[in-house]
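> @MW can you paste both from yesterday?
MW: sure, first one:
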Amino acid sequence: MTTASDPSYPAHWEADVVLRDGGTARIRPITTEDAGRLVSFYEQVSDESKYYRFFAPYPRLSARDVHRFTHHDYVDRVGLAATVGEEFIGTVRYDRIGPDGRPASAPADEAEVAFLVQDAHQGRGVASALLEHIGAVARERDIRRFAAEVLPANNKMIKVFKDAGYEQRRSFEDGSVHLTLDLEPTAESLAVQRAREQRAEARSVQRLLTPRSVAVIGVSRSGGGVGAAALRNLRDSGFRGHLYAVNEAATTDLLDGVRAYRALGAVDAPVDLAVIAVPAERVPEAVAACGEHGVQGLVVLSAGYGESGAAGLDRQRELVRQVRSYGMRLIGPNAYGVINTAPEVGLNASLTPAPAPARGRIGLFTQSGAIGISLLSALLRRGEGLSSFVSAGNRADVSGNDILQYWYEDEATDVALMYLETLGNPRKFTRLARRTAAVKPVVVARGGRHTPAGHVVPGTRLPDATVSALLRQAGVIRVGTVTELVDVGLLLAAQPLPAGPRVAILGNSESLGVLSYDACLAQGLRPGAPQDLTTAATAADFRTALGAALGSAESDAVIVTVIPWVNEQEPQDDLAGALRDAVAAHPGKPVAVVHVELAELVDALSPAGALSPRLRPTDEDEGGYARPDVRIPAYPAAERAVRAVAEAVRYGQWRRANADTGQVPEYEDIDEAGAAARLAALLADFGEGAGASAGESAREAAGEGVLTLTEPDAAALLAHYGIKVLPTLPAPTADAAVRAARSLGYPVALKTTAPQLRHRADLGGVRLDLATEADLRRSYEELTDLLGTPGELLPVVQAMVPRGVDTVVRSVIDPAAGAVLSFGLAGVASELLGDTAHRLVPATDRDAAGLIRSIRTAPLLFGWRGSDPVDTPALEELLLRLSRLVDDHPEVVGVTLEPVVVATEGLSVLGASVRVAHPPARTDLGPRTLPSY
């Protein structure tokens, strides 16, 4: 008998998932305690669905059926249920079978699978989610295939199997369709899974941003407090749906002009979204009321959760469990709120006072309410509007990943701006960001670079520059401040992407032009000589010069510098109109304006300024300067404008390069199964957090739950992926060194392997090109006399390899960035300068080629100062093989290949260190699941 509290219960199979309609469900193993739930579930299933499941009329479950369906060993017999609250909405089970179709145990690797979904929940993607999870469970239990018998009329279930993306075989036998699914993930099954994930998570955010009715819970009668403010902002911003106020002490029918109720249950109509603004201790009661009323989503403004310490973090986790148990999603707690400026919605469920921001093409996500206020204010001052805004606070449930899923397909959003303190699920974030950035810019300002103690998600061990490089690889525009976030966002929202780095500069200030020129050079752009129009330039002069620059084949972008006219006779609207006219006549290139104390010009160039009376056409002058569709961003400093243009240039280059994302190559000599078997053997006696066994040949535990392999074990594992490590032989004495050299063949190298001297040729611990026994003995004596005893130095002998460039190749699993592949040249200089490049795993052939070319010392690989170029294709292949190893086997948590000597033909790996650990229960490649912190 197994219950949820038994040690054998597989708790890691529990998961929250988002269904097709945006609601949530919990998937968990069925236990003996579920008998009553199973019976109740079956009673709610239609006769037709029962017939499809059992191939015969089956009105009720017998006691024997209930026992069978609730008693599992979680190896050969497994049952999972999808639940909302305490109610089953769907079940799936598998039974391991042998070749004869009868019950069996391992090593039989096939199982019969069957589903049943409550009729009221069919069409929500319940069966598809259950199939993903039962498939992952089966693979964990060494089951490789599912067999299913389906009646021909059961089209819905046949479609579930057909659309899963697994390789399958189908036959018709004895009046039923016999399906066999190979459970090995394929590119198609992974694509199907991620497409379903995107649609479901985007739909869940859409439900939060497009409610037809909103209730604010916690509205004070006095009109003060957070709840009352949220209610006023909803009302005064013109929300198009039904609005309700909830206060248990309400004594009137109206609060702030909104219909009021003492309890949510008293509202005799559906409520799509609830804004909760009650003290933290009363939030669970409010959540329960929302769940019972059928509310789809919550915005919890209440504080006192993860931001307040350990007790608050526990309260936050319980809040998420409670919210998801009702199938709802949550923004917050400690949230600032959400805004959707779509005219048919008009939602301002935030603490931003009315009027809400104007309609625009920028989507904005922040974790911090204070930063959200700052960004909204900055956009308002610059005259820019928003499509949507989400400030998620502690983002215990809905995160930046969910918002990216929504923005990816949101036609109202052209640019995504995000202020992130943590990345949450970093591997998923970079995957989603790469996909989104392929169609629209994603600009990120990242705070929290040094994660405070007690933070709800793990921080990164990687340097900030490394994190930035990884984000740029995914196409993310990484900026350092919220000011830069707005600056870059404004340019990308208003202007086209530049085709290259050539920048024309023109204006009425020579000094400002020179500053812009210098800033362009600092950003790696190619500016032309600034064109000085002199302080006497008129609006017509600007229009002519800008039109010429935009029409020139020698420029990809234009920066216009403007200072005030001394006589103040040139209206700013006239200049704005002239610039708009020139841009409208020559579209296709971005323009940025640098100004000095010309606030009126900024206003006139903004979207709102386009509609100023001076710029509107008249009956006598159709067109004129009226270009309301032309927006030109203006900046008070040359450096800010140039930085925005430079980011647009780099993003445009990434977009063009990303049109061909490259491939993860297949190598026929890779032995994935052999590597998996070796890892299983290495970790068989190594428990979570346990140390290694004693003995000279034993492996050592290095860090909590991490095993550092011996050199022979490391070399054997790497060999499964075609990575050959040159052997070394120990030399505890001079005579042993001579015997090793005879075995390997002269010439040889003599090296110390003591930790303080390893890979430190600069300290004299390496002797190369020892061609004779005499050379070897003399070097051995010099080493021991100079640096210490053989017992301290741990000398080894290794065969010499062709000379080349010494490099270092690494891969590491970072808690906040996922698997990372790194490359740099060996030596103190590269370490001191931090000259190391990084790519996310799995790396493509394009990634590998870019990786070795992105370090500052890359010219040394390509024939610098007349030297012979080294074999970079061999180096790229090594990087790709290592990437495959780490990607295929999550047990491998760290690899260092040092040095890797790259010669003119081929390369040699002279040393390798490999660290392994038991893999995590869930990875980004597993079935869909919502994170839990």
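MW: second:
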Amino acid sequence: MFKKLLSILFIACSVSFYGQTTINGKVYDEYLEPFSNAVVVSGDARATSNFDGNFTLTVKQNFPFEIQVSAFGYKTETIEVTSKDQEINVILKENVALDEVVISASRSPERVIESPVTIERMGEIDIKRNTSPSFYDGLVNLKGIESREANYGFKSINARGFSTFDNTRFVQLVDGVETSIPALNFSAGNLVGLSDLDVKNVEILPGASSALYGANAFNGILLMRSKNPFDHAGISTYIKGGVMSQEAAGNNAFYDVGIRMAYKFNNYVAGKVNLTYFEAEEWHADDTSNTTGIGGTIIEGDRKTNTDYDGVNVYGDEVFYNLNDINAALPLMDVSRTGYDEKDLTNYNSYNLKFDGSIHVRPWANDALEIVLNTRYSRGDNMYQGTNRFSQKGYFIEQYKLEFLGKNFFVRGYYTGNDSGQSHDLRFAAIALNEKYNPSKNWFGEYATVFSTTGSDQQARDYANRNRFVPGTAEFKNALEEVINTPINKGGAAIKDQTSFYHADANYNFRDIIRWGEIQVGGSYRKYDINSNGTLFTDENSGITFDMVGAYSQIQKKLLDDRLKLTGSVRYDKSKNFEGNFSPRLAVNYSLGQTKNHILRASYQTGFRNPSITEQYFGLRSGPKKYILGTSNENIGRFSTTVRNEDGSTDEITGSDAFGKSFESLSNLVKVDVDPIKPEQVTSYEVGYRSIIDLNSKSLLELDINGYYNQYKNFVAFKNVFTPNYGDVASDGTPNAEAQTAFANGDYTEFVLNTNTKAAVDSYGIGIGLNTKVFKTFNFGANYTYTKLVFDQSTDPTFKSGFNTPEHQVKFMFGNQNLFNNFGFNVNLRWQNEFLWQSSFLDATVDARTVLDAQMNYRVPAINSRFKIGGTNLTGKEYMVAPGSGLIGSMYYISWTIND
């Protein structure tokens, strides 16, 4: 009996050992350079090539068997292995962009060419070709994508119009986690995003995406995927430096370094950390042009010629008074206080320290289930432009995520919190400095006394300014330090915000259970905890919390030999302050040709956007007599402020006053009827054509054409109204006698209300993109975008649409990844026509511009390194992104990347 058992055990072990086979091989790119991080699979066995391109794979199969070798952006190669001694050398060739696999369009893997909607993408190959200092900067070269460049680290990405620097209509995700700042509801560029070393790919869906991604995916969504440490292990680093050149700032050095460390402990556990740091000079904002005031326009004049001068980047001069109101013998002449230049109030030094780390656990040693625990931090200094210009000093953002991932599902929860640090409003810093050395009532009195005897603005101003804090002196620095640490609602300039939110979402795909079609279901929940201590929101005396919930489902079905693809989805979302909303989407694709590489598509989709936290709960003082007021029903009841009249008396104004007794303008005192804010909605109709065309035996043309028409309902934008500090509305809709007296005395308060227009707002556009190879090995790409607003201003004269987008954009790309051994280059050229920029800061025309970026790179395989030298805006002609922001100059850089 014992011998039989021993024999059985021996046979079992023999079979086991016989079934385990170890093979070795090497992966190269098409230039025969070692290819790292290629994924090699056979059945359940999985391996990754190292920095030298080598891999070792252990399989439980007998010869012969097949292995698949793949990498994002490259064609998958299948190799038959017939013996252990077989020499395995795999060459991965670059994939056609339209043939690559994306997930964002349908939350399910599919080729770009088969996507039911327009999609733009950037992969690892594109990042290496990139002419910009970072992958995020390079997104502007994609078709239909715009970038609002504020400074070295802060860019705001958008598509299809309607945005400023604070783009609340566009959602940005990193590995499924939204990167928006909780208090502001928009993403601050890539400050909480990925390092260039950790980017797997980037996908952008221009246009409404609410059906799958919920509220606020209104203009589009950007999804960044990082590299998994199970597949991408090792240490990589980069060192980058160069010069930023601007007429206002001169030439200033910048530095940028990063490191990624990932380790696969075994088939069960892997982990990674990323650390990046940069220092750079902000683009200086020094526009001294005269304006009509906050949110107004640029006009003629300067400090020497205009007594009521109010400069674009000069602050404190917003406070003005009419001399005739002080002394009836003096002329009817407005006089403004002497302001401080922006450069006197901030040092323009910026930095960002960014860290993220994650632990990945696969309980069954495969991707059937992966548990991810991730944390992400970002701290730094930079400038931000909203209604005013803000110096964000010592801001801090933190995120924590726990996620369960499987082949057909995910469940995740995360927390995001922000701390504004020593952030402050530059306009109110200047106003507070002026009040500190000489209160306005006294200053204007002194000015009037001297002016009455001399008739000279300069002499009167010099006398009233005699005790003015002089920039650069110790007295000035001490006074500035005091006002920027005093909360803005207490007479200073400081923003004290620690808003946060909790989020959970889940998705399940029934593709392995239901075979006739692909069905997905999912849902999400979010809860906000607003905490600005009254410096931004109406939460000085009581906290604010609110939540939102959503659920969605999608069905996809292929018919007619997989040529016809039908997609239908619907989502329901409900927020505390608003009624629930359904967002349906229908799409159809049809594949033409024998190879099915000519795709026609059409879609009907809807989007909606719940008003942002600022649009709901703002109670922000934006000028001496001006407030931005959030207009949710709850906030109207919460808002109350004490205003000072010209004679020194005070009155209280409430949110109900701003809604119930406001007038259109000082020159047209007609009552304005404004409703509390509601969610805005968009209905989008889109058609498109994608094709991979054989030009000859060695060259393909990728063609992508799309057109869309958007119809908006309850579109949200700013409306300026004027409220008398006392008095009311007469029965005929005009100010009663007391209110007329208030306006005559200058005793009024201006409100910027976030509200919905009743006017029809539409937009439409087309996009054409092509990519091919010319002269055998050179990459060439070109795209054109046309975007048009349809809005009759006469139907709502005081409404600002804030479209802020050029009608025409043209972009070109030309390069060669391997012009000769290990040497490559790339060039990007962008042109756009002029357009009108509208915002609560200032309205102005942004001039047409042409921007040229280029880079050269050289690979040194012996040390696994890539050196790159490049520059942006090489023509040297500075351009304006938005009125009030610093002009964008040129950047010249050199970088050294190891093990990319």
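> thanks! Residues 4-18 have pLDDT under 50 and may be disordered.
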